[in-house]
Amino acid sequence: MGGPESSSGGTSDPADGKLVEVVRARGHENVTAEHASTLEVTSDDYLTPAGDCILAVEADRVPAEFDDAFVAACRDESATITATVAAGDHVQCVVGRGDPRLSFDSERSHVVRTSDYVDDRTVLVGADAAAAGVDRDLVAALAAGAQVTFTLAVDPGE
After folding, report:
1. Neighbouring residues of 7: CB distance < 8 A, sequence distance ≥ 6
2. What is the rounded distance in angstroms from the CA atom of residue 116 to the CA atom of residue 122?
3. Which secondary-structure segment (H or E) carries 70?
4. Is 113 exposed, middle or buried (0-12, 13-18, 19+ CB in 10 A)?
5. In the predicted model, what is the mean pLDDT of residues 78-98?
6. Which of 31, 76, 81, 134 could pair covalently with 142 via S-S, beta carbons 3.0-4.6 A apart?
7. Please, what is the average pLDDT of the chain?
8. Are 53 and 31 in contact (CB under 8 A)?
9. Order of strands, edge to edge, in the sheet holding 54-56?
10. Domains of the chain
11. Confidence bin at 6 (pLDDT 50/70/90)
12. pTM of the model
């Protein structure tokens, strides 16, 4: 894992106290973003039509590579975690919370959940939106194969 200012995508912003992890990926022709309770960014290089929660493939980083301080902050149930998906001029933010059960052990994918379910891929729970809630112009850009920046920012709990 990287340090607080690692070149691998982990950063901190002392001005607002947030810890940030940045992942680069790309859209895929099979992106439909129709799932009602999750959204996902995967390191896999393919996407089948059944993957209706997946927004991007070929992620350059996975949760297991995130900075220890970021992971610790996300394990606080009072932490607010914001996931931002950006492609070109299109940006979608999804806000959820941390959970002590978050492991960040996945070496494959990042999953945002509207529920409280946690597995090794879960990066936040209680999200205010899932794939089905993503702006359709952003979905069209993702389906056209746009380059994607997936940013996770945690605002530690009080």
Report:
1. none
2. 10
3. helix 68-74
4. buried
5. 98
6. 31
7. 92
8. no
9. 54-56, 38-42, 109-113, 122-124
10. 10-155 (2.60.120.630)
11. very low
12. 0.90
Q: Which residue has the tokens 């709990």?
A: 157
> Under a CB-based contact definition with an 8 Å cutoff, are residues 124 and 118 in contact?
no
Which single residue is written with the structure tokens 């959820």? 96
Pairing state of beta strands 18-26 and 10-13?
antiparallel
Amino acid at 79: A
According to DSSP, the residues that pair with 126 across neighbouring strands are none
DSSP 8-class letter at 9: S
- SS3 of residue 64 by DSSP: helix
Q: Which pLDDT band, with edges at 50, 70 and 90, does 1 fall under?
A: very low
Phi, psi for residue 153 in degrees, rounded to 5: -125, 130
Question: What DSSP string runs through 104-142?
Answer: ---SSEEEEESSS---TTEEEBS-S--GGGS-HHHHHHH
